[in-house]
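Input chain follows. Return structure tokens only.
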Amino acid sequence: MIAKTEYNHAVTVTKAIGIILMVLAHAIDNPTEPGGYMVIWRLIYSFHMPLFFIMSGYCFKDAYLENAKRFIIQKIKGLYLPFVAYSLLFLAFHNAFRAWHLCELDKVYQLHDFFISAWAVIGRMSDGVDLLGTFWFVKELFFGNILFYITLRLFCQNKWIVAALLFMMTEIFAITNFRIPWFDLSYRTFFAATFIAIGYILRTGDFRFDRWWKWLLAVVAVIAETTIGMNFTMDNQTPLSMPLYLCSAIAGTMMVYELSKLTDKHIKKSVLTFIGQHTFPILALHFLSFKLVTLLIIYIYNLPIESLTAFPILQPFSFMGWWSVYLLVGLACPLFFAWLYELSVQRACFRG
């Protein structure tokens, strides 16, 4: 029981750090000028999204291998249904977002437009909904888990063969630029499945950072991707850049996980735990929350209201220190709504 509790806390804090880094990266928003912001942005992008894929594989339960139905139901409840719920909600407010200058939308949705887009969301997890730009990750995590699970079952649970095969398929899809029709699955989906398989290997193997040279290798891998890597996002990789990105993502994730374990005895009721347990609302709502900060900047600097369409932040104000406000609001608002939702559910259950 003790080991299980500590394990869950370490993973939760790792996810919390990962989601904070994601919001910070979006608050900086791809700086073009060399300098400190560029270094931080590239450092974060060297591992922060693969971190969640790796943690998904790290948390994979061997019991699922004997119960495929349970695995599928768990992924539908945890990924597909929240994806659909948030996407349909944002679709319902499509015209309102346009009228309020929250995003650049030239087209006013008619009823049939809504149903066409809703079918794309429900039928193939289309991730093109405005203000939900990070939802590509949810789609790739869902289908990446399916690919990983099928491959693991087919190859007699040999985790090394599974990881190698999935990475080979990643390279093939990248070289050929092939996409699986209807669901529009590309090399990125197989890359996600590869990271999930690696997470599963890390959990079942002895990969503790108990030697100085392991830390050194990890730091070197992250620095190499940060300084000489040519492609910094997971959806902008080439067959040649993938091995370096793969090493950097694994190293960065494991460093964050090891650092999370160092604070394990002090996080049972901390803010990090709460953040790690509510990464989905932050993923879904932080772009919309950014608009509050942009609105404040517009008011203070007397800018035209059309500036509110800037996505995801209003540059160059981010580099004037506003990135910290974007970060704070991008985390606080989704967490506040998550807290209100849970409180309302608890009260409803109590009354029931």
